[in-house]
Hints:
This protein is an all-alpha fold. 77% of the residues lie in helices and 0% in strands. It contains six helices and no strands. α1 packs antiparallel against α2, α1 crosses α5 and α3 runs antiparallel to α4. The longest helix has 46 residues.
Amino acid sequence: MNQFQKVISQVELFIRKYYKNKILKGIILFLGLFLSSYILVSGLEYLGRFGKSTRLFLLITFIGLNLILLFRFIIIPLLNLNKLGKRLSMMEASDMIGKIFPDIGDKLKNTLQLNNDKGDVSNNLELVNASIEQRAQKLSVVSFEGAIDLSENKKYIKYLLPVLLLGA
């Protein structure tokens, strides 16, 4: 595997970890919102003693809201993780990596652009390939996957804990 392919695989690993992070965050937020809405609807029903039409409205709203949240927070990132739907491009990922590693971002983006544009360069393809390999060799020492910290999702647990304690 040449150096450029290693860089591409590192960017792919970054994209996969990005979507795994979104799924983990989505699960935590979905559970918190699901349990909150369940407690709210159950409490309203218990206190209100509503008629059939109001109870039906509450049920449809509860189901609809939670289906929307499920799709938004879990299913869409899961599909993106499996390369279905609109996914982060290499350029978008390089922009994100550039924000995390400022000294690497421009080099990565330029290397990707040079690789994309090498079909347009007809006169000295060997020189372009050598330049890509040289740049990729400098970039391959950095692990882009480490830029995303899954443990940062712990801050969202504070929204889930009160609901779990209230429901218990």
